[in-house]
C-alpha cells in the first residue's frame, strides 16, 4: 500500500497513475460481479481511499466553522480529484459500450473479468501478514456466503426516489468492498437496468438522488471499514478474499440460464461442450485478464517507490 501523509502532493506521474486507477475502478464498478474495491486493493490505494473518504466529515465541519485554509490543507482533495475524475470518465464513457458488450458478447466479457478476479485473489492474499488456521476458516466461510449471495434472484422493487436513494447507499458499500460488486447489488435490488438506462439518457433527478444516497452510504461505511482494518487487519483482508472467491460464481462464462438485467440468473454453471473458437477466445481472455492484473500490480509497486533524486550537476 502507499504509505503517504494525509494530504500528500504527488508528481504528475503519480496523479496520472491515480487517474488511470480511477478509470479501472469506474470500469469495474459498471460491471455486475466485478468490484471497484478489488481494483483499489490490487493497486495498493485501498486504505488511502478509505481514509480519504473518512476525511469528508471533518472537512465539512471545518468549512462550516469557516476554517477554509485548514480544511483544504487537511483534506486529501488532490487524491480524490484525480481518482474521481478517472471514475467518472470511465462510468460515462463505458456505460453504453458495456451495455452493448454484455448483450452481444457476454461470454467474452465474463471470461475476461473471471481472469481479473482470480489474479486479484492471488495479489491480495499477500497482504495477510501470516496465514493461520482460523484465517483460512474465515476465508472459507465468506467464500460460501458470497457464493450463495450471488446466486440470489433479482427482486421486483419500486422506482420511487426514496428507493433509488436507498439503492445508492447499499450499492456504494458493496463497491468499496473487494469482491462484492455494487452493480450486482443493484441487480439484486432490481435496479441495475433501470439506473444504467437513466445514466445513458442522463435522467438527472434519478442520477442525483442515487449519488446522494451513495455519498451518505460511503462516508458511513468507510469509517466501519477503517475500524475493522485497524483492529482486525488480517481477519478483514481474509474475509474480503473470501468475498472475491465467492463472486467468481457470478463470472463463470458458461452457464445454462436466461438473462435478466444482462446477468445470468437461475443459472447452472457448465463446462463447454466442445473446443470451439468461442471457448478458445474466452480462455485467452481469462489469461489476458490474469496477466493484466499482475502487470498493473507491478506497475503500482514501481510507482510507490520514491524516485532517487538526480545528482546535482557540478
- Side by side, the strands of the main sheet go 1-2
Q: N-to-C SSE series? A: HHHHHHHHHHHHHEEH
- Work out the count of structural domains: 1
Determine the fraction of residues in helical runs and give it as a percent range: over 70%
Overall average residue pLDDT: 78
Q: How large is the count of helical segments?
A: 14
Q: Biggest β-sheet, characterized?
A: 2 strands, antiparallel
Per the principal axes of the C-alpha atoms, what is the gross shape? globular
Structural class: mainly alpha
Roughly how many Å is the radius of gyration?
20 Å
Low-pLDDT stretches are 1-5, 309-314
Strand content: under 5%
Number of strands: 2
Question: Span from first to last CA?
Answer: 37 Å
Fill in the keyword field for this structure:
disordered C terminus; 2 strands; 314 residues; single chain; 71% helix; mainly alpha; disordered N terminus
Summarize the structure.
The protein is mainly alpha-helical. It has 14 helices and two strands. The chain is globular, with a radius of gyration of 20 Å.
Question: Overview of this structure, please?
Answer:
With 314 residues, the protein is mostly helical. Strands 1-2 form a two-stranded antiparallel ribbon. Helix 1 (12-30) packs antiparallel against helix 2 (36-43). Residues 1-5 and 309-314 have low confidence and may be disordered. A hairpin with a 2-residue loop joins strand 1 (255-260) and strand 2 (263-269). It has one domain (12-304). The chain is 71% helix and 4% strand.
Amino acid at each position: 500500500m502507499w504509505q503517504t501523509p494525509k494530504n500528500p502532493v504527488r508528481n504528475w506521474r503519480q496523479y496520472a497513475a491515480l487517474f488511470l486507477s480511477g478509470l479501472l475502478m469506474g470500469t469495474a464498478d459498471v460491471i455486475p460481479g466485478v468490484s471497484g474495491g478489488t481494483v483499489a486493493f490490487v493497486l495498493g490505494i485501498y486504505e488511502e481511499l478509505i481514509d480519504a473518504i473518512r476525511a469528508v466529515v471533518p472537512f465539512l465541519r471545518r468549512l462550516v466553522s469557516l476554517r477554509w485554509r485548514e480544511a483544504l490543507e487537511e483534506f486529501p482533495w488532490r487524491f480524490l480529484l484525480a481518482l474521481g475524475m478517472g471514475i467518472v470518465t470511465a462510468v460515462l464513457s463505458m456505460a453504453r459500450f458495456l451495455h452493448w458488450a454484455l448483450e452481444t458478447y457476454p461470454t467474452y466479457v465474463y471470461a475476461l473479468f473471471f481472469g481479473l478476479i482470480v489474479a486479484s485473489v492471488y495479489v491480495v492474499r499477500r497482504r495477510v501478514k501470516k496465514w493461520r488456521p482460523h484465517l483460512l476458516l474465515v476465508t472459507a466461510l465468506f467464500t460460501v456466503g458470497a457464493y450463495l449471495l450471488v446466486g440470489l434472484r433479482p427482486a421486483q422493487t419500486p422506482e420511487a426516489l426514496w428507493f433509488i436513494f436507498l439503492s445508492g447507499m447499499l450499492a456504494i458499500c458493496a463497491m468499496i468492498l473487494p469482491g462484492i460488486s455494487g452493480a450486482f447489488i443493484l441487480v439484486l435490488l432490481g435496479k441495475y437496468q433501470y439506473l444504467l438506462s437513466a445514466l445513458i439518457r442522463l435522467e438527472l433527478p434519478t442520477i442525483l438522488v442515487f449519488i446522494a444516497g451513495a455519498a451518505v452510504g460511503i462516508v458511513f461505511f468507510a469509517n466501519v471499514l477503517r475500524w475493522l482494518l485497524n483492529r482486525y487487519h488480517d481477519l478483514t483482508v481474509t474475509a474480503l478474499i473470501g468475498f472475491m472467491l465467492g463472486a467468481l460464481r457470478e463470472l463463470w462464462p458458461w452457464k445454462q440460464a436466461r438473462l435478466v438485467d444482462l446477468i445470468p440468473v437461475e443459472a447452472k454453471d457448465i463446462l463447454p461442450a466442445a473446443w470451439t473458437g468461442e471457448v478458445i477466445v474466452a480462455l485467452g481472455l481469462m489469461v489476458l485478464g490474469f496477466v493484466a492484473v499482475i502487470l498493473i500490480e507491478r506497475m503500482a509497486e514501481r510507482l510507490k517507490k520514491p524516485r532517487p533524486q538526480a545528482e546535482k550537476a557540478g
